[in-house]
Amino acid sequence: MDLQKLPVISTLSDHIDVVQHDQVKFLRITHPKLTAGISLYGGHVVSFKPTGFQDLIWMSDEAIYDAKLPLRGGIPICWPWFGPIASPSHGFVRNQQWQLVEHRENENGVVVCLGLQDNADTQVIWPYRFDAKLYVEMGETLKVTLDVKNTDEKPWTFSGALHSYLNVGDIHQLAITGMGDRYIDKLQDSKECEGPEVLKLTAGIDRIYTQPAAVINVSDPEFDRQLTIENQGHNSAVLWNPWANGAANIKDMSNSGYLTMMCVESTVFAPCISAGITLAPGESHQLITTIAQH
């Protein structure tokens, strides 16, 4: 899917159009400093490309845009839980239609805010009231903030992630630092492990790093750049790549898709629902990731 080639449904401002591919509507941002795309289905960033450079965000060539299945790639929002600790896996907000709350822009970039509140469908899955806002700040960097507020009369507990798929030149050449040396290995039945300070991939990875630095660095020689991922409001960082065997079993990813993507996720990890972050009525929490290239 090429966002720039999609026909315009409506124009919101000098820099923002609404476009549609299959059953999914997108905000298409075209600014002197960048181009970007945000799906209203799922509140899902699908592209962020500084002018003159490669996209920082990876989307699968086989992604399905039926407004039923989560999109493969981009920055899926996993909330109000992360992983398979409840159903559906990774929560339900990435399967919901978000609404545009506001947008503003100047010579430095564009800010978009999307919103989602509890509704009849979410109440069936998770019987709590909430107000979620997604702030996407686009300029020289991409900053994504998930702001969740408890609007119920009782406390509730959550986990979640901003499941960023980074676009990279060649997975074999990456060198990743800043993730820390302690991790839970999901490929070894959640075994607690220690690893090197510099990670170079030779096989699939699905790890929850429990002591990440404030900034994780991804050296990407093929694109001659270093990506930095700065996370806030998290307790861990998930690193994931399915490798060849995994990609072959993912219907909305090509067999070679794993070669050009790497997930580095800002994560509130909890092994079960009750072990997450608890918000009292009126309380809020922000989960943030800022992605930049150097």
Automatic annotation (TrEMBL):
Lineage, top-rank taxon, reads Bacteria
Keywords per UniProt: Isomerase
Which SUPFAM superfamilies is this protein grouped with? Galactose mutarotase-like
Its EC number(s): 5.1.3.15
Q: Name one Pfam family in it.
A: Aldose_epim
Q: Which CDD domains match?
A: D-hex-6-P-epi_like (cd09020)
* Reaction equation(s) it catalyzes: alpha-D-glucose 6-phosphate = beta-D-glucose 6-phosphate
Q: Which family does it belong to?
A: Belongs to the glucose-6-phosphate 1-epimerase family.
Q: Please state what the protein is called.
A: Putative glucose-6-phosphate 1-epimerase
Can you name the source organism?
Answer: Vibrio porteresiae DSM 19223
